[in-house]
Amino acid sequence: MAYMGENLQGNITMRSVAEALCISESYLSKLFKRKTGRSFLDALTRLRMQEAARLLEGSDMKVYEIAGAVGYSSSQYFSQVLLQRTRKRPLDYRRANTQ
Fold first, then answer.
1. Distance (Å, rounded) from C-alpha 31 to C-alpha 78?
2. What are phi and psi of 96, to 5 degrees?
3. What's the maximum distance between 2 C-alpha atoms anywhere in the chain?
4. pLDDT tens digits in sequence order for the chain, 99 residues long
5. pTM (2 decimals)?
6. Cβ count within 10 A of residue 60
7. Could you give the residue ranges of the DSSP H alpha helices within 1-99?
């Protein structure tokens, strides 16, 4: 989790994390689920959305800048994920949470 949090801007994959920890992807997947109760992808998305929420609430960064800062190359995809998780588009989320 710490590695993922420190590298949100990068292209984080199960493989990259497993390589950084010198373990197999299979072992990481099983260990991750056992320790966190979440899948790797769910935990990664959750971390990205928490950081995105922090940036939307506490900065004037543009949506595409926030998307890049949390590891999404497409601001449209980032917006879709945020909408799915929070039921709000980025600018609506910012308005609702900064007043």
1. 28
2. -70, -25
3. 46
4. 999 999 998 899 999 999 999 999 999 999 999 999 999 999 999 999 999 999 999 999 999 999 999 999 999 999 999 999 999 999 999 999 876
5. 0.89
6. 7
7. 2-6, 14-21, 25-36, 40-58, 63-69, 75-86, 90-97
